[in-house]
Design a protein that fits this description.
It is built from 19 helices and 24 strands. The chain is an alpha/beta fold and about 600 residues long. The protein has four domains: about 140 residues, no CATH class; about 50 residues, no CATH class; about 230 residues, 3-Layer(aba) Sandwich (UDP-N-acetylmuramoyl-L-alanine:D-glutamate ligase); about 140 residues, Alpha-Beta Complex (Protein-Tyrosine Phosphatase, Chain A).
Length: about 600
């Protein structure tokens, strides 16, 4: 594989960063315009020879090289990855023929390691066009599933969503869906598609606030009388009950939710990793939400800055039909939302939320009849369907922590627009907001507030500088005169050193009297034990935090125990806990 000019190659099984359909993508090193042009010519040639429909061919430069992607039929994706690889290697060999044998050897090794479910034919991969095409045609015939394409086309004609994995095709969703084995698909004429339907479905993405927003939308759907299924970083749930635990904010979680036959509504958390690795798992949704973008995970999959991250999050626009809810307080999202008509053939109507309903963008959008949500005179106002709806006083909503948690105010506004877009009555949204967050079970792991022996304790998931800053702002507002701030601090290992240091800098800005640097033992992700704590400690010291204010523990639970032992009445402890087992242990320690 070392001889190949690309680092990774993958199938795109749904709407993605490049286009709204299926295809293939590879990550290559540096490529000049001439090489990209030769690659594009070969992709176009192979596509025409194979009889594929016309589609997007995209080259996206980034700091680490270039992403090369091509649209392809849903039943030709293993072949599409090989066509993509061949096109690049053949383009390179055309300029450097002395590398032909080396590149062919690399392609043979790549084919041998392929996850394709069908055996590779002979002869093996070659760069010569005629021989390569003969191989492609053999692969195409083996991979083809005419009934799969026909069923998907028939479902699309009836505006039915679909999702699939390696063995199952699902048409419709929730209580209106049905599953079919890929190796025993019916012909479209053998299936009564009129018996299938889609349940109201929302997709939620963003850097922070996704899980809270998902839970709010699901609670509103349940208040409407719809049994709801949802997925998030804590698992898959139905009607308030955990079905399977773990991080299900990706394609597998989406499929499980859409295949829950008891569900009358579906809410899906969609993280950036799944979008970048495979694309979205479902073909359509009623509503999408993009909460915000903030610096996190840079350097992965060719995403190096906030502008690119905004593009990733706004991928949901490729499948949303009725309302895309976007944060008007986020400059990157404001700018990128205006570019959606150039990116997708049918961009959805926008709904804007902000902390202030008087935000100029919201005011203009309302004047044009658009949906908005924000705070007016201390009350959350939803404008939807041409009418304004008072959802209640912000200070009375438990999730807002008396109005201190402005990031949760934003989550409340976003979820209100999404719920209304699904068809939930504003009165039901208001009833949920009056109580949501008053019980620990409402929003576990997110801004959970406790008091123990005069110490205020905040348990949260803050995992990046923006999230930590928001949590510590709440802690500062809850701290009485003379009280001290204590904090535990850790990070997952799959972040760049600069991101780990930025988290420490965000903590130092709030001058905690105690920082317990923790090993995030469940998320080492390639780092050696102790490596992340050392980086955090050095960054804290560089930002002026005294050595005596820093302690270090080798687990999340041990860090919490250290902070609790240190605290005295009047103090506030901010405890970002990330692993679910650690959170359960912490909550047990706190007596919940």
């Amino acid at each position: 594989m070392s001889a190949l000019p690309f680092e990774s190659s993958r199938r795109l099984t749904g709407a993605n960063l490049f286009f709204a359909g299926t295809g293939a993508q590879l990550e290559a090193g540096a490529a000049d315009a001439a090489l990209i042009a030769r690659w594009r010519e070969r992709v176009e040639w192979a596509r025409a020879q194979l009889g594929w429909p016309a589609g997007e061919i995209c080259a996206r430069a980034h700091a680490g090289g270039v992403s090369l992607a091509l649209a392809a039929p849903v039943d030709q994706l293993f072949l599409a990855t090989e066509v993509n690889e061949w096109a690049l290697c053949a383009a390179l060999a055309a300029h450097a023929p002395q590398r032909t044998a080396e590149l062919e050897a690399g392609l043979r090794a790549a084919a041998a390691e392929s996850a394709a479910p069908l055996p590779s034919p002979e002869p093996p991969p070659v760069l010569a066009a005629d021989a390569a095409l003969a191989r492609f045609r053999t692969l195409s015939a083996r991979e083809a599933r005419p009934r799969l394409r026909a069923l998907i086309d028939a479902a699309a004609a009836r505006d039915l969503p679909h999702t699939q994995d390696e063995s199952i095709l699902t048409l419709g969703s929730g209580a209106g869906g049905a599953d079919f084995a890929l190796d025993a698909l019916p012909a479209p004429g053998e299936l009564d598609l009129s018996a299938l339907r889609a349940v109201p479905t929302a997709l939620v993405t963003g850097s922070n606030g996704k899980t809270t927003t998902v839970r709010l939308i699901a609670a509103a759907a349940r208040a409407q009388g719809w049994p709801a299924a949802w997925c998030c970083t804590d698992g898959v749930f139905f009607d308030g009950e955990l079905q399977i635990g773990g991080d299900y904010a990706g394609p597998e979680g989406a499929r499980r939710v859409l295949r829950e036959r008891r569900a009358a509504a579906a809410v899906i958390e969609t993280a950036r990793g799944g979008i970048l690795r495979r694309g979205l798992a479902l073909s359509q949704a009623c509503v999408g939400v993009v909460t915000n973008v903030s610096a996190d995970h840079f350097g992965e999959y060719g995403i190096d800055d906030l502008a690119a991250l905004a593009d990733v999050k706004l991928t949901v626009a490729g499948v949303v039909r009725e309302l895309l809810v976007v944060n008007a307080d986020d400059a990157q999202l404001r700018a990128k939302a205006g570019q959606l008509p150039r990116r997708f053939p049918r961009p959805p109507p926008l709904g804007w939320f902000a902390l202030e309903q008087a935000h100029p963008l919201l005011a203009a959008h309302r004047a044009a009849g658009g949906a908005t949500c924000g705070v007016r005179a201390g009350r959350l106002e939803l404008f939807h369907g041409g009418a304004a709806h008072d959802l209640g006083r912000i200070g009375d909503m438990p999730l807002s922590a008396g109005g201190c948690a402005t990031y949760n105010v934003a989550n409340l506004a976003a979820a209100a627009l999404a719920a209304a877009g699904l068809g939930v009555e504003p009165a039901h949204i208001a009833s949920v907001y009056a109580r949501f967050g008053s019980r620990a079970a409402d929003n576990p792991g997110r801004l959970m507030r406790f008091e123990r022996d005069g110490v205020v304790i905040l348990v949260d998931y803050a995992h990046n500088p923006a999230g930590l800053h928001g949590l510590l702002q709440v802690a500062a507002r809850l701290r009485p005169p003379g009280g001290r701030l204590g904090l535990i601090l850790g990070h997952a290992g799959n972040r760049r050193d600069s991101e780990i240091e930025s988290l420490a800098h965000a903590a130092a800005q709030h001058a905690p009297a105690l920082i317990v640097v923790k090993e995030n033992e469940a998320h080492l992700r390639g780092r050696e034990p102790g490596e992340v704590p050392r980086l955090l400690t050095a960054a804290l010291r560089a930002r002026g935090i005294a050595a005596q204010s820093i302690r270090q523990r080798d687990s999340e639970l041990a860090a919490v125990e250290c902070a609790l032992e240190w605290a005295r009445p009047g103090d506030v402890l901010a405890l970002p806990v990330h692993a679910a087992p650690a959170r359960r242990a912490v909550l047990a320690l706190l007596g919940t």
